[in-house]
Task: structure prediction
Amino acid sequence: MDDGSLNSAKPPSALIFTEGGDISVCTWNVNSVKARLPALSAYLQDKKPDVAMLQEIKTETDSFPSFELNGLGYYSLAQGQKSYNGVAVLSKHKIVLERDALPGAPDNGEQARYIEAYCPDLKSTFISVYVPNGEPPASAPESTERLEYKIAWLDALVSRAHALMDKGDPFIIGGDFNVIEYDSDVYNPKAFENTAFTVQPVRQLFKAFYYTGLTNALRREKNKVPVYSYWDYRAGAWEKNNGILLDHLFLSPAWADKFKTAKVDAEVRSGEKASDHAPVRCDLSLQ
DNA sequence: ATGCCGCACCACGTGCGA
Result:
């Protein structure tokens, strides 16, 4: 079972774990792992993150490109579904699957939005999350079903964070939270007023992550200009810097103590066949 | 802004994303 195709051969260039070094972790909504394979490979070779949490792989678990990524020196674990959603964890160090669904999720994990991987070398759990969008479909603009699903999902995620915090072991949650925490996180707050990204219960649940004792890596940086991680493909959003900050890395206390830097690798958004999200990356000291 | 763009799929239109 643990020698399955998704986590099989030892990567040829597996990084040797060195005491006292730094490690780098990132989260990236790739908007289809297959369409993004060239850009993803380039990014992994450029930044060499030790662990990458991916969202919107948009493919089934069995068709995740684990062999290609293995060739780049990464183990991978994926939880996919056809066409939509799907999450994965890549790691230069061996990882084992802990959970492939969020405990207490409103649909019992029918939508692939959560994966939890444990890394024995780093003695830490890494969790990739893709929080539901929550906006109603165009065909039923008044419906609140999706928003209710999002709220229930976020509520379950906060509960999971509490449970992990109670266990006391190090962990990092990375993902596309689909929440606009502050008005300054979006180019045009007015346009997102009273949407599933900003409504009070959604923002409240985002704040609840801080109350569990988690640290938002990007917020440790004092940025003077708006920092975004998503730019719509449409209407020249990237060129106009019409972005939104949606992607975050949450660190458990042990990791927060080792925080060095965090940033959005925004230049990735301008690359060939780019995702509409850029990676968010954090360097951590192992000392 | 009803839309734009890019992605996947029983694919040459439709649903979805944020």
Chain A has a mean pLDDT of 92. Helices of chain A lie at 37-47, 66-71, 145-167, 200-211, 253-256.
